[in-house]
DNA sequence: ACTGAGACTTGGAATAATTTTC
DNA sequence: GAAAATTATTCCAAGTCTCAGT
């Protein structure tokens, strides 16, 4: 099997090369090794120096013996650095690697090329779990886990800048100043104008001020001096020279190095979020009832640590403090957790997205979605049947139809005193639904706030017979046509929705009054083991991408899509776009969007003028051939500009990244890239995605199907 | 069946880094 | 060569779903 990713050695950003057989980045080898050794040293030395040495040694020994039992090729008994190094290098070599990459090491070393002008695509080293047999017992996530815990934000340093109240200069205690500064820091955000935010903040601020304080209310507070101070600080930071900035960065890297990598079983893994969240004002999304509340300082005493029994436990870096507790839960993947001070929510420290633990569960997620693919016809039949019944069963199947066809979320209940009022399928209310009709038949209009208070507005209707109209609707992201073959079911769904939203119900009543996500999932488990509502989102997203990408196979305009990387990328992004629309993944349009588009318009206009000018000149020119060329050139530039503008408009409020990161089986993309002239994967996956999906890059060949 | 604790995935915004443009 | 635009990364909020206890 030819593997794009892992055989090339050329880490040059493709750029020039169209579709030479030569694969693009895979520079991973090189940086891989480099990074490895340095990192290792960090971790190891850190483990040795910072942790109680005896404990460390002890644990290491145990680990070693363990490892020997596990795989016996590893029996050097010098110190651990070496231990890891050899492992890392050995592991790939001894495993099936050999088959395809005899050239690998040669490549690595054989490149003494000059500096690339462009960015290098470095790929993080990852432990290649998919090449390992996994002898872990059921439910166990690891045998050995050792790490250095978490890193705390620095203590608050009072700046002494005085705010004003009613025109008077006010002195604050450091504690009071700290939260006044948090407030000042948010003065230019939207939160600053929100009553709930101000109310919640004032409650805490006034408490901190105490009774009889000179400051009596928020309205007459003037935080401007602090705001100015913060601005000045920011400016100062910005004004640092390149060298100074670099120095700071390096210092930070150095202090964080011990936390970046952890030991999991017999290899190293990247840690994820080992930085404890700093105190600040809570910024909920949407109309969150708790926005503006102070998110308190987290102390070691709030944190529970998880590591293996035979590991050297993480040392608490704050003098005079201690972790709340130390546990050894090998059926869990978290390294540490604490509860936030807003709603008492759990905050976990996990390994990074590229780690084996995340990778394995990611793969399982997609495998489950593929399992659903095998059963989906049967399940849909069952749903179709169920639509015709009444009571609970009708509700269940109507809800499922929506979940399957519109890719909406399950919709757990929420307590609106504690959280923003958002809904999903099971929690839809009558006020979110509008039934109607148009030329084609019945329609349902959905209008509600979903996760993160993102608007979901969708007019669901039958596809018009008139091609023109169909096309129009297709381009409207707020309209979706009922899937082919589902027309009859849709009519039934509309009838059901009519009865579920009938006049006897208030707008604030639940549509599915007998449903909750838990009973719905119980029902789904019956249809397929392990099936839950969210699997439909994964399934439909991935299935859609697979379908869309395969359309290129015998597309009438295939060759024009394959003309160059840009056109091919556009084809991919259009497919990705379909998914993003399906899943309602949106993003804020930049504040300067309008002016940006205006600029583009002007540019295009300018080019047109230039073109007209050229054409005029051509008539009287002696060198007609050259002029012709120039004109053609310009026309090409204009068309490029115009497509760019189209893309910009199309993607204005749409986020493609969310589906890429969470919903699209990476193997679909990998296969497509391999199928079409080794299309450079790094045009569709950035560095983190390539790291995260290394398993898929290895696994999927060109005819892999979701 | 119901509840709440717990664990893990998913999500957009903020911020940092890089590239493009003028 | 600086400003603007674009892209990658970090941050942390907000979902889903499981499970244990009643």
TrEMBL record:
GO biological process: chromosome segregation; DNA replication; DNA topological change
GO MF assignments: DNA binding; DNA topoisomerase type I (single strand cut, ATP-independent) activity
Biased composition (Basic residues): 59-68
Ranges of biased composition (kind: Acidic residues): 72-84
InterPro entries xrefs: DNA_brk_join_enz, DNA_topo_DNA_db_N_dom1, DNA_topo_DNA_db_N_dom2, TopoI, TopoI_C_dom, TopoI_cat_a-hlx-sub_euk, TopoI_cat_a/b-sub_euk, TopoI_cat_euk
SMART domains documented for this protein: TOPEUc
Keywords (A to Z) from UniProt: Coiled coil, DNA-binding, Isomerase, Topoisomerase
Reaction catalysis annotation: ATP-independent breakage of single-stranded DNA, followed by passage and rejoining
Cellular component terms (Gene Ontology): chromosome; nucleolus
Active site residues according to the UniProt entry: 663 (o-(3'-phospho-dna)-tyrosine intermediate)
Domain DNA topoisomerase I eukaryotic-type residues, every copy: 281-677
Region annotation Disordered: where it falls in the sequence: 1-122
Enzyme class: isomerase
Coiled-coil residues: 597-651
Pfam family, one: Topoisom_I_N
Record-stated family: Belongs to the type IB topoisomerase family.
Descriptive protein name: DNA topoisomerase 1
